[in-house]
Amino acid sequence: MTEKRLAVHKEVSMKRSLLLPMFAIAALALEACAAQPATAPPTPPIGGPVARAVELPVAAGPGDPREVRVLVDEPALKLVSIILRQGTALPEHHSPVPVVIQALQGAGTVTAGTEHLRVDPAHAVLLAPNVPHAVAPDDGTDLVLLVQHLGRGEEARP
Question: What is the pTM of this model?
């Protein structure tokens, strides 16, 4: 064997002698993981009863141009209904936690930065924390929203 081939042979042999034990250890570790039952990550408690029904507004009906009602206010979830009557807009604001905006009745537009997103009974809008956004119903219409605030953000952290 030439010197170059001998050096390459030694290098390959050394790598094999290092890699084979590592592969054996990895295989044992994977086998141990497979034997363990999978557990779901802990979910934050909602609080209150384990299950409950929440009454949602079914129609805008008569009332103030803008009506906000907190339906659930727990550590992991704040559920709010917002009724915007006769084209009344919800001015720009933000939430420190992720938000889902869903239309129960009517349709409109959520403006988040330069994005204009449709919200209606077939389309919900998901927003990351601290995204400034505003909501406007279609011209002259009523819009009934269900807004889910997921968690409490900084205020819930110790």
Answer: 0.67
